[in-house]
Design a protein that fits this description.
104 residues, alpha/beta, 3-stranded parallel sheet, 2 helices, 13% helix, globular
């Protein structure tokens, strides 16, 4: 949280569950959430906010689509592609239901 030099979350690539809230806030150099691709449970709220370089949230697409977040989900004030749950679904999911993700 609030780490201007944090460039990635790759060290968390084996993380499958968070036992409380997950907050990713004000990390000016963070460009993607690829390190969270194994995450399937957040027991509490999920907040991803004020990360000015964050354009790729596909790492949490699986969590949002088929995982479990038991609290509120707040995704806002990041860069285009990661500024809302709807944007993540559009950019990372199969927006036109043709079996191909839009970014492929």
């Amino acid at each position: 949280m609030n780490n201007g030099s944090l460039a990635n979350l790759d060290g968390l690539s084996a993380l499958a569950s968070v036992g409380w809230s997950l907050q990713i806030l004000s990390n000016g150099s963070l460009a993607n959430l690829d390190g969270l691709s194994a995450l399937n449970t957040v027991v509490g709220p999920l907040t991803i906010q004020d990360n000015s370089a964050l354009t790729d949230c596909c790492g949490i697409h699986g969590l949002l689509e088929s995982g479990e977040v038991s609290g509120a989900i707040t995704i806002t004030n990041n860069d285009t592609g990661c500024d809302s749950q709807a944007e993540i679904t559009f950019y990372c999911g199969d927006a036109d239901n043709d079996g191909v993700n839009i970014n492929t």
